[in-house]
Write a structure and sequence with these properties.
Elements: H1 4-16, H2 21-32, H3 49-66, H4 70-73, H5 77-99, E1 118-119, E2 122-124, E3 130-132, E4 139-144, E5 147-151, E6 157-161, E7 174-179, E8 183-188, E9 194-197, E10 201-206, E11 215-226, E12 235-238, E13 243-246, E14 250-255, E15 262-268, E16 271-274, E17 279-282, E18 286-291, E19 294-299, H6 302-305, E20 312-319, H7 320-331, E21 334-337, E22 346-352, H8 357-365, E23 372-375, E24 378-381
Parallel strand pairs: 1-8, 6-8, 11-12, 21-24
Antiparallel strand pairs: 2-3, 2-7, 4-5, 5-6, 7-10, 8-9, 9-11, 10-11, 11-14, 12-13, 13-16, 14-15, 15-18, 16-17, 18-19, 20-22, 23-24
Helix pairs in contact: 1-2, 1-5, 3-5
Protein name: FecR protein
InterPro entries: FecR, FecR_C, Ferrdict_sens_TM
GO molecular function, one term: sigma factor antagonist activity
Length: 382
């Protein structure tokens, strides 16, 4: 049994977005013992915060009256209000995660078959040759600047110094790897660093770091990096409007051109983020948000921020417009909003990136907040 102080602490953490996955599961389990269905309250339910709280309390008070367990009756108003506020924000998330497997009440019908994305990318060598990585067999692809470029049996792009000679500096040559919409790919760089590219992303990098004082790469789109430690040669990631410098760490950068904010999330280690106006040092679990030239730092759930790398869509109080942009990149679809206001509805939850588009849209429709129609490779939000 969980005591009241612990429940209050968990509720506050969830509302602030600082709750850990383990704490979230504990809080979910506690609430699940109280009611079979989540409490859902729309934003328009009351005209003021005080009125909203009072109406939430009235609903929960009715739940208490129906509940026979003594532990429920001992919970104070503040805990219940925190729990209700939680479900105002996260009812969609709970519905998706707890009920997504139940298709019995689903009346949606999509006839189009649109599969999820996969390992697809194009490699451009220093001599201009373009290779479709999905179609080519594993093995050595080329040798440039004393570095052997190959596709591994696991489908990764890998760079290795010939005879492990890391000191011989050949000419400074660059390769570019690009993922299309509906693609992702992993690269093992010659220094041992690893990079994962999300859909519609591009990474430009030197074939060899042997002659470089800094290991500099250029990113467009979204990438996750696990950087090999080398104190004498800092690792830099450049995007259009910022630079990230590290020695050895794990971090994610989201820098899509159709997003208003560039997000840099630190998973492990320490990084410094530069913009034209200011700079910030990040600690694990922090995210730098760059907008209009300025960087501000927030605490986030880093695991959620890199969910794409682990095969998950993770939405944390995101507007439907943002949600559908992520979906459109992965499934290579066009999204049209019949009502522009629908793009501002807020969603939270986790879904598998391996689902086909039909399954994913059905899960979103279960929230009751949106409906969809598929025409070819176009998804219309009704």
């Amino acid at each position: 049994m969980t005591d009241q102080n612990t429940l209050q602490d968990l509720a506050n953490k969830w509302l602030k977005g600082t709750i850990t996955p383990e704490e979230k599961e504990k809080f979910n389990n506690w609430f699940s013992e109280l009611a079979e269905e989540p409490i859902e309250i729309t934003e328009s339910y009351a005209v003021s915060e005080e009125a909203h709280e009072n109406k939430m309390w009235n609903i929960i008070h009715q739940k208490i009256a129906q509940e026979k367990k003594p532990v429920v009756k001992r919970l104070n108003r503040r805990v219940w209000i925190a729990a209700a506020s939680l479900f105002v924000i996260c009812s969609t998330a709970l519905y998706l995660t707890l009920h997504s497997g139940d298709q019995s009440k689903d009346t949606a019908s999509f006839t189009a078959v649109i599969k999820p994305g996969g390992d697809k990318a194009f490699l451009t060598l220093a001599n201009g040759k373009r290779i479709i990585l999905k179609d080519i067999a594993s093995g050595v692809l080329a040798t440039e600047a004393n570095v052997q470029i190959s596709k591994t049996d696991e489908g990764q792009l890998a760079y290795h110094y010939v005879n492990d000679d890391r000191k011989t500096a050949g000419p400074v040559l660059y390769n570019i790897i690009e993922t299309p919409r509906g693609g992702e790919y992993q690269v093992l760089l010659p220094d041992g660093s690893k990079a994962w590219l999300n859909a519609a992303s591009k990474l430009k990098y030197p074939v060899s770091f042997a002659a470089a004082k800094t290991r500099t790469v250029e990113l467009s789109g979204e990438g996750y990096f696990e950087v090999a430690k080398d104190k004498e040669h800092p690792f830099q990631v450049k995007t259009d409007n910022q630079e990230v410098e590290v020695l050895g760490t794990k971090f994610n950068i989201n820098s899509y051109k159709d997003e208003a904010i560039v997000k840099t999330t630190l998973v492990e280690g320490r990084v410094k983020v530069f913009s034209s106006q200011n700079s910030k040092i990040l600690l694990p679990g922090q995210q730098a948000k760059l907008q209009a030239g300025y960087i501000k730092v927030e605490t986030v759930n880093a695991v959620n921020e890199i969910g794409w790398k682990n095969g998950k869509f993770t939405f944390n109080d995101e507007e439907l417009g943002n949600v559908m942009r992520k979906i459109s990149r992965w499934y290579d679809i066009e999204v049209v909003f019949q009502d522009p206001q629908a793009a501002k509805k807020v969603f939270s939850g986790k879904m598998s990136r391996s689902d086909d588009i039909n399954t994913l849209l059905r899960k979103l429709q279960k929230t009751g907040e949106a409906k969809f129609k598929i025409e070819g490779r176009k998804v219309i939000v009704l």
